[in-house]
Amino acid sequence: MEIKDLLGDAYKDGMTMDELTEALKGVTMPQDQSAEIARLKDTISKSNAEAKDWKDKYRSTLDEATRKQQEAEEASRQMQERLAELEKEKTIAGYKASYLSMGYEEALAEETAKAVVDNDMVKVFENQKKHQEAVEKRIREDALKNSPRPGGTGGGGDPEETEAVKLAKQISSAKAKADEAAVKGLENYIR
Asked: What integer best gives the mean pLDDT of the chain?
């Protein structure tokens, strides 16, 4: 808490220490509110207990037919909630199966199906983008894995040398012989 907030209207820019000390004498510090909070919590607990007691007393005064009707309405409401929950789960499972058949990963398929049911189209489009990126990555990996390796002169003793490699070796050998002959000719000339 700043002095400006503590003093309120009594604060003025450029106050000296003496003026600040005098202004602070009239200020009372905020009190600890934990006792008030505890009192309010107790009051709420008592109110809840009283409400439960009144509800029980009310139910005990009802005649048998009215009580059964209320219980039946409550059971019907619970069944409707459960039915709605099961229908939602069934719909999600159907959408998930559709997404799995399109090649989605299982976790992404389930997340996307829930987003469709919840009408969260932003999430649906984000997941479609993720799926598309995964498909493209998989295609690139498969293309690299299935493409043949290029031939070369790696010197690995590959038994299937190409014609170009054989020709290059012959030319290299002929050049080496010509260089050797030139060196011998120069040696004879120099002597």
From this structure: 83
